[in-house]
Give the backbone structure.
Amino acid sequence: MTVPTLETRGLTKRFGGLTAVDDLSLSLPSGKLHAIIGPNGAGKTTLFNLVSGLLHPTSGDVYFRGRNITGLPAHEISRLGIKRTLQVKSVFARQTVAENLWITYEGSKRFLHPFRDADSDTVARERVERTLEQIGLTGIAQRQAGTLSYGDVALLEIGMALISDPQLLLLDEPTCGMSPAETERAVVRIREMARTIDIVIIEHDMPVVFDIADAITVMAQGAILASGNAREIAADERVREAYLGRPEDEDYVEEALDA
Amino acid sequence: MSRRIAIERVIFGMFAAFMLSVPWSVPAVVSPFWVSIITEILIWSLFAASVNLLLGYVGLLSFGQALYFGFGMYGVSIGIDLLHLGFWPVFALGIVAAMAMALVSGIFAVRLTWHYFAIITVVFSLIFYFLAVRLKPLTGGDDGINFSMPPTFSFGGHVWSFTDSTFQYFFILVTVSLCFYLMHTVIRSPLGKAFLAIRDNDVRASLIGINVYVVRLVAFVMAGFLAGVAGALFAFFGRYASATYMFYQVSGEGVVWAIVGGAGTLLGPVIGTTLFIIIREVISTHWEHHSLIVGVVAILVVILAPNGLVGLWRNALDRVDQSDNKPVDKLQSRTGTP
């Protein structure tokens, strides 16, 4: 048996009286694109925050390739190769597109040289140029990230994920707010990345999830409701009840809010 | 692009030529008293640069930089007056004392950001201000410490010391210039890029692997270095140290100078400091409420030019660029997308 890429054991996070993640035990094997779905407030983003070190669990443990990473600070978890994007698109707004990629590439280094000219690093520069081509943003490399359209910011985020050489990539609603054309492009990139990188994706766009995910975990109220492949999930009665069964996509949000 | 670079080079060349000629050109035109005003502007510019390194590049608003300025001053004064050390050892003592103090307070302060950070930096500077006022045997309290200047270099029969006002001016000009060059180098380095990443988005910076706490602490100690050098130079310049210069009002002036000149630009603090010290010197002889004008200017700049005077200047240069590149669209569109 191989060691799972990501594993949680009895992971729990309470915010005061609210239990956002409730005794969650999860094991994600490597080599699969894993999707986590569930109604709003199910604890998906909190789970990502616990794995990436932005939050520390109330109890329970997180293992990355068999190594216990519970309670490590965010930058150390990042240096182990677990990279993530944020639900609200989040880049370095006052830097150019190229500078965003550059600092992401250099960020994981333990030593940041205080006196050498940053532009003199040709290895980094070439890598930035290659990544710009991969995400198709070469033409706007010198634009400030804060002035980009939402779809371009999302592409930049994917570029930042690519350039950081992740071992495990956590994508939090990567296609949220994208136009159908942009979504299509993003899905192509994610599929490409999934060939070499283990990816866990939180996504609300069901066609996207069923299209790209090898395995799906459904969360509700901080716990696992169901898990399996796309067909099994689509057929699962409890999942249907939770929100898949409604004809209109928007309805499940209301239902989750009412619950 | 080329016209912009040409304009900037010409202005920088004129500025450098003027700075090098100050001991002769200024007394020829106005009172020799202005040579020492310009020397003072150089020192306080370095102090404003210390605020700017934190506020403009790392995104931390410190209202306590006077503490490190004061440690630079006291390091020099106590070194000469009580320990009877020479010029270079006391210079080093002042700088090391300032950096050590910055390290100790930074360990606590950089855990916090924004108003919490601003408050804790003020609190640290207040604690040591009151300590300095109380510890009369060491610091001279309110009266401060006066000392006589040891020579800077003595070589054969020749002695160079701050008692020669031309030597004093050039020593301070060279030291301040070196510090600005050092800051310029750091800002362009990988460490400097990490500063900017943390300023823009500290959560994202930690997610790409930057140790935000350590980088902020390094920046805080570097800012302590700049303020410490400024304080040591000011002690040499005045042959004097006093707790007054550790009061938070001094820190606040540094913040205003940096913001008005342009936080996040290398030379913004020089411009802000120059403007306000000239206002103070020219107007205070005629009108005792000169700080009212300082306040009005500060408010106007913050409202009308949020990026400071250097920001205004850059906008003007951008317009030069645009008029040069009219046919080409400034906002290039991505190729291949509708």
Residues 328-338 of chain B have pLDDT under 50 and may be disordered. The first helix of chain B runs from residue 2 to 29. Chain B has one domain: 2-323.
